[in-house]
Design a protein that fits this description.
2 copies of one chain form a homodimer. The first copy, chain A, has 10 helices and 11 strands. By secondary structure, the first copy, chain A, is of the alpha/beta class. In chain A, the strands form 2 sheets. An 8-stranded mixed β-sheet of chain A has the order 1-11-10-9-5-6-8-7. Chain A has a 3-stranded antiparallel β-sheet with strand order 2-4-3. Chain A starts with a strand and ends in a 29-residue tail after the last helix. Chain A binds a DNA duplex (30 and 30 nucleotides) through residues 9-10, 12, 17-20, 43-45, 54, 56-57, 59-60, 62-63, 67, 69-75.
DNA sequence: ATGCCTTTGTGAACGCGTGCACAAAGATGG
DNA sequence: CCATCTTTGTGCACGCGTTCACAAAGGCAT
């Protein structure tokens, strides 16, 4: 996973497991596609295939929402789209602010997937005065000074952080102070927030690193376990360990530990 | 989490649990930050705080790699950076291709976090002939026609898909046919790949939807459980269910189920 | 109405991941 | 050399998530 929850150790809101909640958007997407093709009903088997999950898992997931299926037939597509949307809270409008309008922030602002799911970009905010007023995705970029007033005036409760790592915690603190209670963090840093604030993170490079791990394993296996075994025990002595990444350190990793 | 593995049901490679692998990049980042500040050693407690995890979990994670700590002292930062890098396969160079140079693709191309972790962007590929030759992040965009030759000539095994959803599966198939065995998918679609190919996905809108769910729950709770309970049982009749998102459908969701 | 066929909904078993709590190990000071 | 203190490494228990397998339920044909 590219993301993980922070704080609040796996609360199961009203009885819906966290793992199920994470899959609901997946089902919703598959159902929306079916709805657009005017497919009236779908079986758990078909829908599971479309969503890329096990059919038993899908049925159990839906069972937490209630009994919305018809035995022998399947699920009513339109009805299920509505039920899941309601459960996820997508039947209402969620204004969001995006802070940090660099390459990634601009990409997010232009991303159609937000608007189509009940999310409305209330404002784009950047610290660079040169950016202020420039239109991005049809919206003028606002300066950081306006952050608090924008959030209060629009009743925004969800914020997206797409700043460099170094600025993320500071931005986060201001968002929280202004009343934001949910944060989607794209900056490669661990954010600390007070209780009651949800943080989800998306880290691009972490995903690649996980892929690299499996890729390496595949490469090691391909010439038989012997090759992998032979390469392993000869762990280099401490002295010869190259300082991988200990050099200049690009990307702007920020020191996140306080000196003891 | 913004991502999830596909295929291969939670293989624990050589004994390292999947959950641990997913956290190693987190530890690596925190350690790199310490390394840059020339901190020689760190305790599990400090490092855990920096990585945003439980210290017991961190120690257990490290125990899968071996006994790299010193009791009463902690872990040698440089040594641990090297060990984790090696375990993740980051001591070697991983050429990657990025397919789909829109807003997101460009953002990824410019993202410094890749280069700093042993990943090298071998090529940027786009289907639009008008893009061909244009420099993005210092690299000329190549046309899709060259996809196969680029992958073969550079020995690329990791591909990043940042195309619209409608093109993703087709691109995926070509990548796999050309020899790619690991794919990071940003398109909002379920990709189907043959065995032996790893797919990880990052879905921006899914993360927001999960946040919305929790946000809704918070809003419902704030006026006491009574309010939430009162709003629930009056589930609207099937007929009155608005077709949430059943309209035009932006974003380019693609039908992913085959008609039975 | 009756029997058959399809598909849901779920009880139960299993496995993974997490966190506690403590013994073992090493450093440090006398 | 011994005592004490710190911190690691891990055995154990618990809870969540996944999967199997099947009974119950509804549609449909006869």
């Amino acid at each position: 996973m590219a993301t993980g929850r922070t704080h609040r150790p796996a609360t199961r809101s009203r009885g819906i497991p966290e793992a199920t909640v994470a899959r609901l958007p997946l089902y919703l997407r598959a159902l929306t596609a079916l709805s657009e093709r005017s497919v009236p009903t779908v079986s758990s088997e078909e829908l599971a295939a479309a969503a890329g999950v096990n059919s038993a898992k899908l049925r159990k997931d839906f069972s937490y929402l209630g009994s919305y299926g018809t035995r022998g037939v399947g699920y009513d597509v339109e009805y299920l789209v509505y039920q899941i949307s309601r459960e996820l809270g997508l039947t209402q409008d969620w204004p969001v602010v995006i802070v940090g309008i660099g390459n990634l922030g601009a990409a997010l602002a232009n991303y159609g997937g937000f608007a189509s799911r009940g999310f409305r970009v209330a404002a784009l905010i950047d610290a660079d005065p040169a950016m202020a007023g420039k239109p991005v995705a049809g919206l003028p970029v606002r300066h950081t000074d306006e952050l608090e007033s924008i959030i209060r005036d629009n009743g925004v409760s969800i914020g997206v952080i797409a700043t460099p790592a170094g600025a993320a915690q500071q931005v986060c603190d201001r968002l929280v102070a202004a009343g934001i209670t949910s944060i989607l963090n794209f900056a490669p840093t661990v954010l600390s927030v007070p209780d009651g604030v949800d943080v989800r993170k998306v880290d691009l490079s972490i995903e690649l690193q996980i892929l690299a791990f499996h890729e390496q394993r595949k490469a090691g296996e391909e010439s038989g376990p012997a090759a992998a075994a032979a390469a392993r025990p000869g762990a280099p002595a401490r002295a010869s360990a190259p300082a991988a990444g200990g050099g200049k350190g690009p990307e702007g990793d920020v020191p996140a530990v306080m000196p003891a």
